[in-house]
Model the fold of this input.
Amino acid sequence: MARKVLVLGEVRDGSLRNVSFEAVAAAKTAAEGGEVVGVLIGDSVSALGSEFIHYGADRVITVEDEKLKQYTPDGYSQAVMAVINEEKPEGLIIGHTSLGKDVAPKLAAKLESGLISDVTALEAAGGNLVFTRPIYSGKAFEKKIVTDGLIFATIRPNNISPLQKDEAKTGDVSSLSVEIKDLRTIIKEVVRKASEGVDLSEAKVVIAGGRGVKSEEGFGPLKELAKVLNGAVGASRGACDADYCDYSLQIGQTGKVVTPDLYIACGISGAIQHLAGMSNSKVIVAINKDPEANIFKVADYGIVGDLFEVVPMLTEEFKKL
Ligand code: FAD
Done:
């Protein structure tokens, strides 16, 4: 059944985040031959419309307003609701990012719709659209179908591959005028922690350090390896609690959830709360001095050894490739 599916793009520092293109790929599956419409919200976003189309959107609608320069739940939900009222879609897909996790439930409540959150796979099978999502902190997966009403889902970054970019693809980029009013929050300024290199939640390679790195300086060899592999550095809560690194790097149940192609855990014991944030990574390598460490139970490759010897060796070898 062909459907019209909207995709909310996510803009950061003037660029579309990768998860927006993954959401377009999910929307293509959900549309089953119907139309995929990208939605861009901000103060000046129309220039990004063509890139959205190159990644598979059939057309793009922008809602631009000075009040939408920074994300606020009130502002964004007013803008998205206006597009929904205009377009009357059968589906809506949003990235399962901080923004998506905040705005999607608000929209679902306004629309009196269900919401399938944190989707890692989507397929059209047996006349149904089947959504897969992790449960019990990633220890099991459930499959869901929508039997009635809007097909509304958030998708976990790094799980659904974006479509091949086609720079020859064209489509209409139009703007919708929406009066943004009664904002209960006004963001005056956003001060981001300076982070080096790749964004942790979208990184294809994550080098994570635990209490085993022993100090802030102990993260040095991990940063070197991350640089060589164009990856991001992450951490266990143990390392964050010990003040070896910032909490923005924490991976796990109460930190970020990552699903890179390669996750290298260095000096991390593998507590259940840490596994909740990384066990769905495609390939897991664990480096730990203790052969009994729990992390080896989820690792595809295990190296029993001192991370301060193993990590620099890996860096030197990868440099040769
Ligand atoms: P440790 O458990 O101390 O492990 C250190 C490891 O390093 C050991 O296995 C040791 O053998 C190894 N090691 C030491 N030196 C070396 C060396 N030189 N070379 C190689 N290996 C070495 N944790 C998270 O990570 N993320 C979360 O989101 C999270 N949320 C939590 C929520 C709750 C409600 C609770 C109660 C806990 C949470 N935790 C979380 C904490 C979690 O239970 C663990 O305490 C934490 O993950 C341990 O961190 P660690 O593995 O770095 O430290």
Notes: The longest helix spans residues 73-87. The mean pLDDT is 95. The radius of gyration is 21 Å. Residues 210-212, 236-239, 250-255, 267-269, 271, 273-274, 277, 287-290, 293, 306-308 surround flavin-adenine dinucleotide (CB under 6 Å).
